[in-house]
Every structure is written in C-alpha cells, then in structure tokens.
Design goal:
CATH architecture: 4-Layer Sandwich
Structural class: alpha/beta
CATH class: Alpha Beta
Order of helices and strands: EHEHHEEEHEEHEHEEEEEEEEE
Mean pLDDT: 96
CATH topology: Nitrilase/N-carbamoyl-D-aminoacid amidohydrolase
Strand content: 25-35%
Helix content: 10-25%
Number of helices: 6
Radius of gyration: 18 Å
CATH superfamily: Carbon-nitrogen hydrolase
Length: about 270
C-alpha cells in the first residue's frame, strides 16, 4: 500500500485558512493512507482551557471531521488527523480516523505535554488498533512518542502502521522514532507541522521534518524543517508482521514479562 504525510503551517485560530491550506495540498497526494498534523485546523498554543473550548468540535459531526470525511471519499483513502475535540463536558487533544465510507474512530491523547494539562483532559480510552483491510493501524499523538509503552502497546495489539500526528517542539522525536520502529518492527508516519504559534503568553516553534520509518529503522521519506510538504511511498505491510530477528529469536515470543519490574519483588 502507499502511505503519506502532509506537513503544513497551521495558523493559530484561523480555521478557515488552515482547512483551505490542507484542502489545497490534499489533491497532490495519491495514497491509501494520509496522516496530517496534530490540531491542524486551529493551531496549538492555547492560553487557557476556555480558549481551547472556542476551537473544540464534536466528533464526528464537527466541521473538521466532516471536512476530512469529504476528502477521504474524494481520494478513496484513509486519513488520520489531529483535532481539538469536545465530548460531553471535556476537551480532548484527539486524532480521528476516517475512510472512504466515513468516520471510523477517534483516539484521545493519553500523555499530555506541558501546558496541555491545563487545556485538555487526558485520554480515557486505552490504545487500540483498527483493521482497515490493507493494514492494521494504531494512533498516537505527539508527546506519546516519549513513552515506549505507547508504540509497544500498539505493536502488541497487532498494529502494522503507527499514525502519529504531531506538533513537535522538542528536538528528539524524529531520531527516537527510528528506535521505536526498530524495537517493535512497525512502520510509523509522523506528520509534524512547521512555523510557530506566537501568542501574548509566549512563542512555540515547531520542528517540521515529518517522516516515514520502516520496521527496520530506515527513514523511507522525510521533509525539511520549514517547508510545507507532501510525501508518499509504497510499503510492504507484511514487513511489519514478521517479528523474527534471527533464526532463533522472535521479538515478541522472546519477551519474559514475568521478570520485568523486578517480578514479585517489584511489588513489595
């Protein structure tokens, strides 16, 4: 199958402009799966939960999810993208998965970064995998990468491809994702944004360099740090389904979780 990322500049608070930008870039992508950045419709650096609520939308009925559903139908592909979600009385930093037939699922970010803890509620749904037929997809968002348990959980659940919308500001993720893919034998699509959010309370600059990594830790495709970019590449999903390391070693079969965390002693 062919997988892709869309790297774009997201202007804070300008939903019309951001959706227009994404809508201008999407026609240039021919792929079975496309990943867009975290919070691509509204920007990232909120001043408060009250401000985040101004831009949060219901899923799947909200404007941004409906926009993505329309494009998935037009392109006959699956799309994963980050949205600010309003659900009941809570706000979540979420990623939606849509396909040619419409809305499929939503993942709510489990590991919140820095001031996000004052804007959003942490995700309450455990990591999960969705089988779209051509591949089994797992989703995580930005800072989730910092926790090895995120990708390992998705890999143990059978994910072939990790869809990773991001607004990265730390300099480590792109290199770390090589290890995450290697230690779990999965593909990963990190779709980061470029530009900055300059607000009265501070400035955040985003690192770009979106990438697609193979189960063998190879960088299959990468964007620059400050350019809007679309990139797609053909992958053999079967490469993520063999966990054989040597003739005698299997990545998951060789795990010995009964000895992790000190075994019984670790619970004393």
């Amino acid at each position: 199958m062919k997988i892709a990322f869309l790297q774009m500049d997201c202007h804070f608070g300008k939903v019309d402009e951001n959706l227009t930008t994404a809508g201008a870039l999407l026609p240039g992508i021919s792929a079975d799966l496309v990943v867009l950045p975290e919070l691509f419709h509204c920007g990232y650096y909120f001043s408060s939960a009250l401000e985040a609520a101004e831009f949060a939308e219901s899923v799947p009925d909200g404007r941004t999810t409906q926009f993505l559903i329309e494009w998935a139908a037009k392109k006959q592909c699956h799309i994963v993208a980050g949205v600010a979600e309003r659900y009941k009385d809570s706000l979540f930093n979420s990623a939606v998965l849509v396909g040619p037939s419409g809305f499929i699922s939503v993942y709510r970010k489990i590991h919140l970064f820095n001031e996000e803890k004052t804007w959003f509620s942490p995700g309450e749904i455990p990591f999960f995998v969705v089988d779209i037929g051509s591949a089994r997809l797992g989703m995580m968002i930005c800072f989730d990468w910092f926790f090895p348990e995120s990708v390992r959980s998705l890999a143990l659940l059978g994910a072939d491809i990790i869809c990773h919308p991001a607004n990265l500001v730390l300099p480590f993720c792109q290199k770390a994702m090589i290890t995450r893919c290697l230690e779990n034998r999965v593909f990963a699509v990190t779709a980061n944004r470029i530009g900055m959010d300059e607000r009265p309370h501070g400035r955040l600059t985003f690192t770009g360099c979106s990438q697609i990594i193979s189960p063998f830790g190879e960088i299959l495709a990468a964007a620059g740090k400050d350019e809007e970019s679309i990139c797609s590449i053909d992958v053999n999903v079967e490469q993520a389904r063999s966990k054989k390391l040597t003739r005698h070693n299997d990545l998951f079969a060789d795990r010995r979780p009964q000895y992790y965390f000190g075994g019984d002693r670790g619970r004393d």
